[in-house]
């Protein structure tokens, strides 16, 4: 293999890693390759592609797998991200399982089609490698995906390459159960271009979890012709939005159910949110997305009264899961969201969603901007956030500006 290295195990007499997860191989993969591998395992049949840094190696790897016969799919180079998403829409209407990837301006350019895919109720899954837009920048940020919160797409944020691979697999099941598209987001470079040990399941194991796609009501059926995209009068548009809402409010519960089924079959567990060291003793809770979570995990081990709330599902925001995770927290505790995004508002997206979910709760919450545009959020930065949140918090805090 040209893009991955297989780990052969350990010395004789030692525990062999392959025994940890039966029917898996342990590979060293970058996050982008993990996303591409997941698409292969899910038997994606159509890949419309347009390169944009830092997601390019996802579509390059998919092109390689198709060309080498490792993946039975139609791969098409498109002339823009708008065209790539339009092709994804058409192929999904035709009943195919579709995957593509984008980042930054590519996602912004596809904004119109994101709405169309969602409101046509098409179960497309994509990977977005989070990066900002203007001023021009290719490093890690979440302002591109968070700017698409209102397009109707489910959004998951992965902490590691393993989580990206596993989340793509779970996303197809969720998307096809509810006919709602899913965006799996990974941080540029910190995840997309960093190599990690990843357990890759056998495709037969994925087949047991993810059945073949059954085309839904918004699919082309030549035996029963219908039109798509026509003018919809108010009474029908209102009903369409109601049915979308009815299914969207099931996302959090279905995602938990699917993650539990995944854990039973694959041996790795996930939740919409993860609470670390949160209880009556906790005085401060850091709230994180993606790769900042891993840094915070290490730092809080030195602070017995500091907890961590990791958000994995971000849209629809898992209000009930957040409330459950914080139910034993003392009313004097402080929450500190860490934002790798600036969306032109006073607070960042994490703070806004947490405030909405916890309306009526007594917790004090202070917002911390750190890492926008790919600036490193080091352990020292996390320590600084902990110090400021405890001693000199402002309503909104910018960290490491110098």
Strand fraction equals 15-25%
Shape: globular
Q: What's the architecture of the largest domain, going by CATH?
A: 3-Layer(aba) Sandwich
The CATH superfamily of the largest domain appears as: Thiamin diphosphate (ThDP)-binding fold, Pyr/PP domains
Outline the biggest β-sheet: 7 strands, mixed
What is the CATH level 1 assignment of the largest domain? Alpha Beta
Helix residue percentage: 25-40%
Question: Termini distance?
Answer: 44 Å
Number of helices: 14
Q: What structural class results from the helix and strand content?
A: alpha/beta
The count of DSSP E runs of length 2 or more, i.e. the number of strands, is 17
Give the overall pLDDT as a whole number.
93
Low-pLDDT sequence parts: 1-17
Query: How many discrete domains?
Result: 2
Provide the gyration radius in Å: 21 Å
Instruction: Indicate the CATH topology of the largest domain.
Output: Rossmann fold
What does this molecule look like?
This protein has 402 residues and is an alpha/beta fold. The chain has two domains: 16-264, Thiamin diphosphate (ThDP)-binding fold, Pyr/PP domains (Rossmann fold, 3-Layer(aba) Sandwich); 274-398, Rossmann fold (3-Layer(aba) Sandwich). 37% of the residues lie in helices and 19% in strands. It is built from 14 helices and 17 strands. The strands form four sheets. Strands 10, 11, 12, 14, 15, 16 and 17 form a seven-stranded mixed sheet that branches. It has a five-stranded mixed sheet with strand order 5-6-8-7-13, with helices on both faces. Helix 1 (31-41) runs parallel beside helix 7 and helix 7 packs across helix 10. It is globular, with a radius of gyration of 21 Å. Residues 1-17 have low confidence and may be disordered.
